[in-house]
Design a protein that fits this description.
Helix content: over 70%
Strand content: under 5%
Largest sheet: none
Number of strands: 0
Oligomer: single chain
Amino acid sequence: MFLRKAPAGFTPAGLGLAGGEAASDAALARQRAMFAFLCFVWGTTWLAMKVGVATVPPGLFAGTRWAMAGLALVGWRWANGQRIRLPGRLWPRLLLVSVLMVALNQVTQLYGLRYVPAGLATVISAALTPISLIGFSVMAGQERFSLRQAVALALGAAGTVMLFGQKALEGRLGWPELLGAAGVVVGCLSYSLGSVLARPLMRTLAPGEVAAMSNCIGGFLLLGASLAFEPGSAAALAGHWGWPALAAWLYLLLPGSLGATLIYFLLVRDWGAGRTGSYAFVSPVVGVVLAVLLFGEGIDVGELLGIGLMLASAGLVLRR
């Protein structure tokens, strides 16, 4: 019996290498699909938050949502036999992450949205979030700053200003608007710092565990503070918010807190906070495109150029 010679490179080791490359490509494709979902969902949440806080105390509106999201994630893990056991040494960092990413971030941003135009809030968030995520990541030693990142940030910031700047700054900004903008800034910085501090937790804990516990802790802290100090919070707990606020709350809970937030933690673990933060240059574009397609809003050449710069910025950051 004669044995046919195998083609060159057709060896078990070669098969393993090819299989590894295929697995790596499949994982990257999944991550990019998750990133696209994240950008879409978070590109539409500003409007939902604006609708909700118009009629519901911001602390209660956010606290109930994040607490419910945390309980749902904990319950899902328990139903699948995945118990959450946190080493004592991780509790201080987890508590800090919960306060920064949920409690402080939400209350400052939502109160800011009561007094600042949504366009200006988008400019601040889109420009500041990627910069602060990369900055905190570099300071924490998690990432190295590169020329490509610098170019990407410059393109993204320029595109954001071209897309939103004129509309955001139309009219006179008084003290309420300036204070609202300051709240959005504090919320962005708080979320970015919490994201960077959360990454080391995921060396020990699964991203789902970090998401579940941080949502629970931050949500209940925010809810308790709202009931104790926020005017009208106890009465609003009855849930008579009207259907627009209830629909906004459900949207923020399901794809927002349960879907996109879990994906965000997964990508921060695998990509790092700086790279994941490029979503902030893509999600505003999603909102603009949807406004054009669904509501017939106009868009000029300068805004199209801004969109192109923002997408180019994200492409630079995400390129392998």
